[in-house]
Design a protein that fits this description.
The structure is a single chain. By secondary structure, the protein is mainly α. Helix content is 83%, strand content 0%. The protein contains three helices and no strands.
Length: 99
């Protein structure tokens, strides 16, 4: 099956929209004057952890999208020096993300 950038773009857009919904829900909770910070800390931590997990998942999906689509094309069409630079760039992204 061929790689399809438009399909992957749509998946990433859907993912970021879900993350935005999670963040907006938590934002509304904190903007509500009747919300007590100590009322249910576990629920708030659960929501924050879900957002963190969703963001990490989006980063992973984006790196995969870049590697399978754009990077492979650049590697096929470039010379060995450019290919090595592309791999180095991807490894740097993974190192930064892994922190």
């Amino acid at each position: 099956m061929a790689y399809c950038c438009d399909v992957e773009r749509k998946k990433l857009q859907n993912r970021i929209n879900r993350i935005a919904g999670q963040v907006n829900s938590l934002k509304s909770k904190f903007n509500d004057e009747s919300f007590q910070l100590d009322s249910d800390p576990y629920e708030t931590i659960r929501q924050l952890t879900a957002i963190k997990g969703a963001v990490n998942g989006m980063i992973t999906s984006y790196i995969e999208h870049y590697a399978k689509g754009h990077m492979i094309e650049k590697l096929r069409n470039g010379n060995s020096i450019e290919a090595e630079a592309q791999v180095d760039n991807l490894l740097e992204i993974i190192k930064v993300y892994g922190k």
